[in-house]
Amino acid sequence: MKLQGIRVVDLSMFLPGPHLTMMMADHGAEVIKVEPPGEGEPNRHLGPREGDFSVYFRNTHRGKQSLCLNLKAEAGREALLRLCETADVFVEAFRPGVVDRLGVGYRAVVARNPRIVYCSIAAFGQSGPYRDVPAHDLATEALAGVVSLNLGNDGEPAMPHVPAADMAASLLAFGGIMMALYRRERTGRGDYLDVAMHDSILAWTPNVVGEVFTNKRAPVVKHERTFGGSAMYNIYRTRDGRHVVLGAQEIKFARNLLQALGRPDFLPLCERGPGPHQQPMIDFLRATFAQKTRAEWVEWFRGRDISFAPVNDLREAFDDPHARARGMRLVDEAGREHIGVPIRFSDEPGHPKFSLPRLGADNGRILAQLGYSDAEVARMAAEGAIASG
């Protein structure tokens, strides 16, 4: 696999960092999750459980090892630094300044291993006026203006139900780490990455900043091309109370639809682009879609060259034949479901391991690899420098 031979030390928690390092584990990296004593990784305990682990944990920590260290103890801190001497990548997601106070910040780690790629993920990054402001996904999306774009039919901001800032940061950190590892092959030195969730979600707005950058104003959301101002890029309710979408605005698709529905006279509205002038066509399509059930519309659109889709719920999405064919729903030997691997190589494809570590399960083996004797490990346990669940 592509990342075989890469060792990753992961101190991050919740979603962005753990998702990032799980992607690396899926492609062959050895990921050592360093957890604090007590409860360990919080998402071990969040949401529904199957067996000994939460579904959240198994979809962010498969294939990893667990080393439970007390970094406030000198021996625990030294064990981590010794581990970093053997590592290629270090990921942390504490609030800025915490790793320095613990003695495992970038300067301390790079002094032990100049080749390491050290990645810090934080809500607002390591600099700027919001550096020390506590935040998770929702707050960063709100400050980035993204929540203001997510309006319900009542015109009020709605909760963003996908953690876009978390996942954007995860993916951008993943890309940054890959670039740093590639560059290291030529220079022999690692690097430091400062990844902010706020930066990451702002970077995901190129298709909606036209008005922002040209006219220096916020967009009128309901008139925007991708937010409801276009009849051909919209959500429609069906007779049975379900929903469908039209999902592409190219004129050829509008022409195909309107001719099939006997209303080519609406085509000039589409040719003028999005905006309030399209309301008559939106009203027509709302009335039209309300005449059939979702299943009937799926059949009606089958084989037509028009971008259309039913609005699936998340259960339907993972049961969808396309998702199954692409391997985005995996089932292990115990019959438990997992999110699949989205990065698909023809050579050396990813191979997720469904094993999950109990808290501190790999303490003894990893410390032995680092040169600790059984007596030293026992002393560290007695002193509270290591622990297990």
Structure in words:
It contains 17 helices and 13 strands. The chain is an alpha/beta fold. The chain has two domains: 255 residues, Rossmann fold (3-Layer(aba) Sandwich), CATH 3.40.50; 74 residues, formyl-coa transferase, domain 3. α1 packs across α7. The radius of gyration is 25 Å and the shape is elongated. The model has no long low-confidence stretch (mean pLDDT 95).
Kindly summarize this structure in a few lines.
The protein is α/β, with parallel strands linked by helices and 389 residues long. The chain has 17 helices and 13 strands.
- CATH domain fold name of the largest domain: Rossmann fold
Report strand order across the widest sheet. Answer: 5-2-1-6-7-8
What is the count of β-strands? 13
Percentage of residues in helical conformation: 25-40%
CATH class annotation of the largest domain: Alpha Beta
Share of β-strand residues: 5-15%
Mean pLDDT: 95
- CATH architecture field of the largest domain: 3-Layer(aba) Sandwich
Helical run tally: 17
The stretches of 5 or more residues where confidence is low (pLDDT under 50) are none
Q: Determine Rg (CA atoms, Å).
A: 25 Å
What separation lies between the terminal Cα atoms?
31 Å
Features:
389 residues, Rossmann fold, three-stranded antiparallel sheet
Summarize the helices and strands and which ones pair or pack:
Elements (H helix, E strand, L loop, with lengths): L6 E4 L5 H11 L3 E6 L13 E2 L2 E2 H4 L6 E4 L5 H11 L4 E4 L5 H5 L3 H7 L4 E6 L14 H7 L20 H24 L3 E6 H6 L7 H5 L18 E5 L5 E5 L3 H10 L6 H5 L7 H11 L4 H8 L6 E3 L3 H6 L1 H5 L3 E3 L5 E3 L23 H7 L4 H10 L6
Parallel strand pairs: 1-2, 1-6, 2-5, 6-7, 7-8
Antiparallel strand pairs: 3-4, 9-10, 10-11, 12-13
Helix pairs in contact: 1-7
